[in-house]
Specification:
24% strand; five-stranded antiparallel sheet; 620 residues; 22 strands; alpha+beta
């Protein structure tokens, strides 16, 4: 990471974080993150990466490990605070100063509400902004809030080397399981000792653990393991359905107790009287009736508190905690559980968002691919299709369908990009291929018309976006913000059974060329390279015709096969794909497909970085 220009003594950072007299900036970084539950995790990863880069450059040393840990915790807390209370995009600036200090500034675009200083809050009356900045106040040498028009910045400066190492054993650097963060409790004075630096480390590492989960039920399970028995004797979580706007008792409670023998009775008691939310939406603790004799003779008295789990202004569920033999929870515990609850709510929100997107993508993916592959007289076929992102949609697609009048057509393509943009192109290309083929257009004519269709669609999209921008009073597109050109590589062919084999007419538009394996092991390339679809106006495509004789196998692949990497090498270097195919003499279409797939997977140690599709057509 390159150093930035020297600051004069006493200069402020981007929005007002002051530098101590005589210091200058050695290195800095900046990122813009969406105002989503994933932002804190992204910010932690960026800061960790920055400290790694600085160590490689010799700007930090072994003694700065504590500073890196503190910086990660503070950045996580400030970004979480911005996401919860502003909900806008978040800009993060960080810098390493010459004296070894670390400064972070987190900007949002909701300046109307300021984070409150955590000190002096009354128990059970935690304001909307919570106690999250207690961690910042503990770890930072100085911190504050700066306002500009339409913008608020919360900044913090950490001293060189970070805060002093706490007495006693340090928390584990990584969480193997949630229990690692919730050891057996030590009551009374032990609470006070642990609720210092140990609690702050607990909160930061719990954030990492929860942020990495994509299943709301797993988030709930981890939450119970984190709270019991360290912070409470028992806890329960109700997760509300997406459409539910009432209190938290609409589904079964998930219950944890330090003694498993008490869970069943406790769950029965809690489900008879689930917590209900009052007017408004707030996350602060609310008293909850003690569940009577469900905890046995030793648990007839105690204190229970309910916390609403809120993310993005929407209630997602309720967290209930209880401890036997107390008249009230210590303020430090109520604040810490509320901080944890905010992270739990963000994690649940992120998991639900992921689940929604995965469901939409799966439905979309099913609609973009054929429900079945057609059977062709005189041929057998085999297909391998492995999208890189199982949540889809993929940029690769395939089709094999009857076109009428004794013809069958096949296609295998790769759209530039992934996700919704790719889905739009596939959604255009696949039905148009079928329509044009069934209208009797030849291979070359189909590509000519599909090329023009993609260009026309891209032009219409650009015109519509420009009109919308002008209507909104905006200026020209920033680089990368306008409609993206939709490129498509495609191998398309037509198959006609004839006496003694199958006649194949095909054309490649910017796609890896197909190979034919003969019965004797000879491999030859068929078709000629031509321009990608959606690039050149009025491009004229040509086709080639070959006869596939009994025993001939036609192999069609996407670049996920040819460009599979192992270090700096690619699978198809030195005609690697042809060599692999030559070793498939005498195999069926299905076994050829399996063999090529296995060789591609085995070529590199890491998982494939691209979608993978291959089609084998074998004449009988």
């Amino acid at each position: 990471m390159a150093a930035i220009p020297v600051q004069r003594a006493g200069d402020a950072g981007a929005d007002g974080a002051p530098a101590p007299s005589g210091t200058r900036t050695l290195a800095a970084g900046r990122a813009t993150l969406p105002g989503s539950p994933a932002a804190p995790g992204s910010a932690r990863a960026l800061v960790r990466a920055a400290f790694t880069d600085w160590a490689d450059l010799g700007l930090t040393g072994p003694d700065d490990t504590r500073l890196g840990d503190d910086a990660t915790a503070v950045v996580s807390e400030l970004v979480t605070n911005a996401v919860v209370h502003a909900g806008t995009a978040v800009e993060v600036d960080w810098r390493l100063e010459e004296d070894g200090g670390f400064v972070v500034e987190v900007h949002d675009h909701h300046p109307a509400r300021a984070p409150r200083d955590p000190d002096g809050e009354a128990p059970y009356d935690t304001p909307e902004h919570g106690r999250g900045l207690r961690l910042v106040a503990t770890l930072a040498e100085s911190w504050g809030v700066t306002y500009r028009t339409g913008r608020k910045t919360v900044w913090a400066r950490l001293p060189p080397g970070g805060t002093e190492e706490p007495e006693g054993p340090a928390p584990a650097p990584a969480l193997v399981a949630a229990e690692a963060l919730a050891p057996q409790p030590q009551r009374a004075a032990g609470d006070r000792d642990w609720l210092g630096r140990g609690a702050l480390s607990f909160l930061a590492e719990a954030s990492d653990l929860l942020a990495g989960q994509l299943d709301e039920n797993l988030v709930a399970a981890l939450t119970g393991q984190l709270i019991v028995p360290r912070l409470a004797d028992w806890c329960a979580i109700w997760l509300e359905d997406e459409a539910t706007i009432r209190g938290g008792g609409d589904g079964p409670a998930r219950v944890w107790h330090a003694s498993e023998s008490r869970i069943e009775d406790l769950q029965g008691a809690l489900e008879k009287e689930p917590p209900r939310s009052g007017p408004g939406v707030r996350s602060g603790p609310q008293p909850y009736p003690w569940p009577g004799t469900a905890l046995g003779p030793e648990g007839t008295h105690g204190t229970a508190l309910a916390y609403r789990l809120i993310a993005g202004g929407r209630p997602l569920g309720t967290l209930l905690i209880g401890r036997c033999g107390l008249l009230g929870f210590p303020d430090e515990v109520t604040g810490l559980v509320e901080d944890l609850g905010r992270r739990v709510a963000l994690a649940i929100g992120a998991a639900r968002q992921y689940a929604r997107q995965a469901t939409i993508s799966a439905v979309l993916q099913r609609g973009l691919l054929p429900g079945a592959v057609a059977e062709i007289p005189g041929m057998t076929s085999a297909l391998v299709y492995e999208p890189r992102d199982q949540g889809g949609p993929s940029g690769d697609f395939y089709d094999l369908f009857p076109a009428g009048r004794g013809r069958w057509c096949f296609a295998i393509g790769d759209v530039q990009g992934k996700g919704p943009e790719a889905a739009v192109v596939i959604g255009l290309a696949r039905p148009w291929l079928r329509l044009l083929a069934r209208e009797g257009y030849g291979v070359a004519d189909v590509l000519d018309r599909l090329n023009q269709l993609l260009l026309d669609d891209a032009t219409e999209a650009a015109d519509a976006a420009a009109r919308a921008l002008i209507a909104a009073g905006g200026g020209p597109f920033a680089p990368g913000d306008g409609p993206q050109t939709r490129f498509l590589s495609l191998l398309y062919g037509e198959l006609t059974p004839v006496e003694g084999g199958v006649r194949c007419t095909l054309a490649s538009a910017g796609h890896p060329l197909p190979l034919v394996l003969g019965p004797g092991g000879e491999v030859r390339t068929v078709a000629r390279p031509q321009t990608l679809l959606g690039v050149v106006e009025d491009e004229t495509y040509t086709s080639d015709t070959i006869d596939l004789l009994p025993g001939d196998s036609l192999l069609c692949v996407t670049d996920g096969v040819t460009e599979r990497r192992s270090g700096t090498d690619q699978f198809d270097d030195g005609d690697g794909l042809a060599r692999a195919l030559s070793g498939c003499i005498g195999l069926s279409a299905e076994r050829i497909a399996d063999r090529i797939r296995d060789l591609v997977h085995g070529f590199g140690e890491d998982e494939p970085e691209d979608d993978l599709a291959l089609l084998v057509l074998q004449a009988q």
